[in-house]
Amino acid sequence: MNPIWLTVLGTAAAVPSFEYYTSGLLLSNLNDEQWLIDCGEGIQVPFFRYGGNYNKLRRIFISHLHADHYIGLVGLIMSMHMHGRKLPLTIYAPHGLAEILTAILRASDTQLKYAIEYYTVPEDTLSTVYKDSRWEVVAFPLKHRIPTVGYRITQIQQERRFLANEHTSSIPFEYIRRMKAGENILAEDGTLLYHCDDYTEPLPKLSFAYCSDTAYDERIIEYCKEVTLLYHEATFLEQDRVLAEKTFHSTAQEAATIAQKCGAKHLLLGHFSYRYPNRSVFREEAERIFPSVYIAKEGMQLNLNQLNHSKTHA
């Protein structure tokens, strides 16, 4: 199985700069597809620069309708159109986005070469917005100035780990492959030769949760319980907590507290205010609460399978 990669496309809160783009995360190798979470201004530039593929991008999940989280959709949609995309695209977002994009495309008399399907995400309740045989995507409410949702992506089916010992050394390799997939091995007469549960155990399920703009909200703890990697916004530091509360954002310490209480394995901080030129201070604040903290940076790639099998990062 190819590893699941998370690529950071943008890390800035509110406005982009020469160095930083606004919000965007790219997941690769999900059913041989790419999925994008949030789509800030000009996102097609880092998308293409850091390994995005216009034909593999099949799903886009938008957290809310503040411009730094969705306004890049217009450019991205047009870039894919100009590159000859034919495959349909599904966009998941709170109410209102379909009307906005439809009006823009209509005003410019744009006849896209591919179809866009819109899924309106419930804003105030836990809901499954996508599910197939391998992955489930659940949306959950966040606490922000306008309706905002987070997303949890959870692996449904995981390959098993084969327990090699003296009793299993004679099992043919082809049987091992089938047993790792959860199959029992039967003889031609139908009798049981090997029971997969006797020699294998499932690997831990991979999961990733995305909490974009939100004030500190302990409802998140249940929604993001024991995730492999939690992305949580950290717009401010504790020294500016009053400003965080006023704008319905979080501090690095609050993000780390959520990670600790929900039992996450790792924490990825992002959505940083431009008022802090040295971003290492976010890690310093968060690590007082939670041991495994990553600071999002444009172009950063994280192997989620590897994180799923580790306890803390180096």
Q: Could you walk me through the main structural features you see in this protein, from its secondary elements to its overall organization?
A:
The protein is α/β, with parallel strands linked by helices. It has 2 domains: 5-158 and 203-308, Ribonuclease Z/Hydroxyacylglutathione hydrolase-like (Metallo-beta-lactamase, Chain A, 4-Layer Sandwich); 160-200, no CATH class. Helices cover 25% and strands 27% of the residues. The protein is built from 11 helices and 18 strands. The chain has helices spanning 44-49, 67-70, 73-82, 97-107, 173-180, 196-199, 219-223, 241-247, 252-262, 280-286, 304-308, and strands spanning 5-10, 24-30, 33-37, 57-61, 89-93, 116-120, 127-131, 135-141, 149-155, 160-162, 185-186, 192-194, 200-202, 207-211, 229-233, 266-270, 293-295, 301-303. A 7-stranded mixed sheet has the order 6-5-4-3-2-1-18. Strand 7 and strand 8 (135-141) form a beta hairpin. Helix 9 (252-262) packs across helix 10. The longest helix is centred in the first third of the chain and has 11 residues, at 97-107. The two termini are 24 Å apart.
